[in-house]
Amino acid sequence: MRKLKITELNRIMPEEFKKARKLPLVVVLDNIRSLHNIGSVFRMSDAFCIERIYLCGITATPPHPEMHKTALGAEFTVNWKYVKNTVDAVEELKQEGYMIYSVEQTEGSVMLNELALEESKKYVIVMGNEVKGVKQEVIDHSHGCIEIPQYGTKHSLNVSVAAGIVIWEIFNKLKVTI
């Protein structure tokens, strides 16, 4: 095996990315503190052609040099919107016909590996604050909650890692050809 060169990866240009078909998924970041986590979510959202990101509450917005370190320019390719109140963002997306899922450990949450999605629907995942998670008020406005199965002594993941796992699983479940 030979490692591929960047020129062999057939990456599309930012202009092409803006016009490309997108996964019917919006990521809502609910009061994320870390610029590196925000940048990482932008980068994953670019990699899997996510429709857009909503940045809510204390979540920083581009451009920012610390965010750019992990986003690597994805903050300029992925569509994003700032909404001060996360509940307002969720309600706006509901009005657009999205199914809202908070990624949180709750009574009645659905394990990610058991989540059934319909290819004809549009989805939102809400990712919560690094310490407090998704606010209860936001959970109350969600259609449901998704939980990532965990089997060790810790029952929490870094928010950007959790976002990556959930985005990848939704990408696979929706079987969208990008």
Provide structural commentary.
The protein has 178 residues and is an alpha/beta fold. It has a single domain (14-174), classed as Alpha/beta knot (3-Layer(aba) Sandwich). Helix content is 34%, strand content 21%. The protein is built from seven helices and seven strands. The protein has helices spanning 14-19, 35-47, 65-71, 74-77, 86-95, 136-140, 159-174; strands at 23-30, 50-56, 79-83, 98-103, 110-111, 122-127, 144-147. A seven-stranded parallel beta sheet has the order 3-2-1-6-4-7-5, with helices on both faces. Helix 2 packs parallel to helix 3 and helix 2 runs parallel beside helix 7. It is globular. The two termini are 27 Å apart. The mean pLDDT is 96.
Strand content: 15-25%
CATH topology (fold) name: Alpha/beta knot
Name the strands of the widest sheet in spatial order: 3-2-1-6-4-7-5
Number of strands: 7
Q: What CATH architecture label applies? A: 3-Layer(aba) Sandwich
Order of helices and strands: HEHEHHEHEEEHEH
CATH superfamily: SPOUT methyltransferase, trefoil knot domain
- Principal-axes geometry comes out as globular
